[in-house]
Amino acid sequence: MKLTATIALAAAALIATSSAAERNVLEEPYPFQRFDGEWKLKDDKFQQVWDGKTVETLSIPGHRTNCSRVNTDKSVLCVVDAVDFRGHILWAVIPATRAVSHLSHFGEARLGRGTGRMEENGDLMLSIRFTDEPQGSSRKYTYTWVSDNEYVMRSVQYDDAGVPTGNWYGGSFVRVRTDD
Q: Is residue 180 in a domain?
């Protein structure tokens, strides 16, 4: 009898753990909760390709992104300090449709606007056009959660015909612990 109760408790714990990991952030009052806080590049590494073929790995110590709720439960503002390149990103979501709107500004002339969608686990897929990139081109951004304390961002450039140019950039971001 005790063994049966122990097995039942263990099974209940596994089910609870599984359902917590598979939570639907779109049903939460603040879907961007996972993004809140301070983030840095994992191992200070960022990769990019600007000529369609040569991968550059940059070290950017001190890169920080601070995300926080704006004045609604369905939007977040991320302020980025990439040492010599600063800017911000504003996202807003309509949970019923998963639609996300994006507006950003970096440096002196990099204004970005676009749309996309949020998945139930909080992953984002966005299509964004920038004022400082070739006419008609766009970028597909993916923000993929590895854990509650790490996500991978990747941006791939597409030409005006929707064909990948070979240019991309991205990196892994980890949460800055409050005791760091």
A: no
Q: What is the pTM of this model?
A: 0.84
Rounded CA separation 131/155 (Å): 16
CATH of the domain at 11: 2.40.128.20
Task: Encode pLDDT of 75-102 as tens digits.
Answer: 999 999 998 889 999 999 999 999 999 9
Number of domain units in the chain: 1
121 part of a folded domain: yes
CA–CA distance, 166 with 180 (Å, rounded to integer): 37
Token pair for 150? 């790490």
Q: What SS3 class is residue 178?
A: coil
At residue 26 the predicted structure's pLDDT band, cuts being 50, 70 and 90, is confident
Q: Quote the longest CA-to-CA distance of the chain.
A: 72
Single-letter amino acid code for the residue at 162: G
| C-alpha separations of 91 from 59, 120, 135 in Å | 27, 16, 24
